[in-house]
Amino acid sequence: MAVRYNKLWKILIDKKMKKKDLQELAGLNRYQMLKLARDENVTTEVIGNICQALGCTPDEILEFYDD
To answer: Domain of 31?
Structure first.
């Protein structure tokens, strides 16, 4: 099972935010942002920080699919 963060990128577009804005707001480093951009697994702490920064829940920013 793999993960996609397409929903996250759509939220950023809707909020007129750049990835750099999210990085600063959620306190993420470049490596974590790179993993998100590549649809790689990140820790639940990263997901929690993003959700807190954007005021959303995990199911609103990611989805699982069979690879």
So the answer is: 2-65
